Amino acid sequence: MRTTQGTPSWLGAVNDRVGLSALLEHGPLTRNRICELVGVSKPTASMMMTRLIAAGVVEERGQVAGNPGRNAALYAARTDRPLGVAIAIEAGELRASVVDAAGGERPAVRIALSADAAERDAVREVGAAIREASRAAGTDAAAVHSVCIGTAGYVDPGEQGTLFSETLPGWPVTRLRGMLEAELGVAVFVENDVNLAAIAERESGAGEGRDVFALLWLGNGVGASFDVAGDLHRGSFGGAGEIGFLPLSAAAQALDAHAVTSQDLAGAAAVRRIAAAHGLDSADHRSALESIAASADRDAIIEELGERIAHISLPLLATLDPGRLVLAGPTAIVGGAPLAEAVERGIRRLSRWYPEVVATRIDHDPVLHGARAFLTAKVREELLGTVARLSLS
């Protein structure tokens, strides 16, 4: 049986990619440490670093004490290019942050958005996000090659790329991605906000280390995300998890005469109705949650919410049967572990399923957090792909 042998250039490209990956993952390393992590000899590690420095993606960054009388050079990945910008958009605000291939922390900027569709413009808003995020990070906006936009709703992956969202007034409802890419000269990814929250939980939250989990988002609206072995199930048309519009069962409707859909039962309007029933005034969802958190009736309200959420969870459990259900979003953050416990009790009382129900561990801007994680992988792959092409040329 014949075997295919790698050419020197191919083997060099593989080594260079693995070496750069190690620097991105672990930070600055000495040659000896690179040998240990990558499994190559010292001469090979030296040649790798020489090629990567010549390619402009690695630099020497000082020295550390080595053997007696000798210092060892530290090699570090350059993360000033390519870059991405992660964006989270809500009804009245856009938040954005620069992303590099190492996933380093960068400051986030906030840009107020008009509620008037006539004053909104997709290209102008995304362009401003790129410029302002780059200015805050002290990076070059021209180095931004990709953008991830997290928003409520989704884009159909078909030819027309139809946008289904109520939070982007004035934005085109077809061919949005192609238009932004043509006008701004960057790769554009438009992702559902709940899917991005699930990515954040998988990376460093309540989904970390789990084979399968479902995430239930409890905010202004209600939505879900399904993570199977690290892959999100988006569905054929991009709308998997849009459970907010599902009609309620008769038993669930009996809990609230105003509720017809899952969103009616556990979304922002429902939270405000529950708060009002307990004598708590609120101007919006946020103030309602603040009032509930400070109320003497907090425990009773949490129990009521738990019963409602248990009902709207049943379609998720019947579809995916996950071992863990993560509650995320503003309502879940305020409810915390007591709300998760109430939901778990409700599910066991109402059904045959018995998943572990847990509260989110990402309590600050989970959508932007997920967009950063999503885009870090894209930026890293672009950088590694560039190295492979240079090594083979």
Overview features:
15 strands, alpha/beta, disordered N terminus, 393 residues, Nucleotidyltransferase, domain 5, Arc Repressor Mutant, subunit A, 5-stranded mixed sheet, 13 helices
Detailed description of the structure:
With 393 residues, this protein is an alpha/beta fold. The protein folds into three domains: 71 residues, Winged helix-like DNA-binding domain superfamily/Winged helix DNA-binding domain (Arc Repressor Mutant, subunit A); 132 residues, ATPase, nucleotide binding domain (Nucleotidyltransferase, domain 5, 2-Layer Sandwich); 153 residues, ATPase, nucleotide binding domain (Nucleotidyltransferase, domain 5), CATH 3.30.420. Helix content is 45%, strand content 20%. It contains 13 helices and 15 strands. The strands form four sheets. The protein has a five-stranded mixed β-sheet with strand order 6-5-4-7-10, with helices on both faces. Strand 5 and strand 6 form a beta hairpin. It is globular and about 75 Å long. The two termini are 30 Å apart.
